[in-house]
Amino acid sequence: MSWSGLLKVFTGLFLAIALLAGGGFVAAQFFIAKLSTPPPRPAFPNDKPSSPTKTAAKPKAVSTNQPDAVDASPSPKPLPSGAYEGRVSQSIGLILRDAPGRESGQIGGIEYNDKVTVLETSSDGDWQKVRLQPSDREGWVKAGNIEKNSQ
Q1: What's the predicted TM-score (pTM) here?
Q2: CA-to-CA separations, 68 to 62, 71, 145, in angstroms, rounded
Q3: Radius of gyration (Cα) for the chain, nearest Å?
Q4: Both ends of the chain: CA-CA distance in Å?
């Protein structure tokens, strides 16, 4: 066997290994990308729509005692000083509690990117009292998971 024949064998072997390694790397990247995306959120018949555009318009209450009054809905609750608008920045959402503390009862949840109004912060700074935008429900969430709106 000559040197040129030996060089051709090693070059072919090197190229075959390089092609197999490169193809394996590309295939691994493809499957890792597919497996790392979260599945779509399941929808159940009793779920409430998450966006206000999907909800039907609420009929306005009409008072029969006052013929001139068209809308008798209550005025929004006043905001305390220092309150600000924000959105949930925690990608898995937040647990809404009835009092500040991990041992407090869970009264609901807030999804990622939902808009809230931060009303106050606990004395130790670990919890924030929030008001949910569309429903006006209030509760406590762990501090540091709400991003202030830049307005």
Answers
A1: 0.49
A2: 10, 9, 45
A3: 29
A4: 78
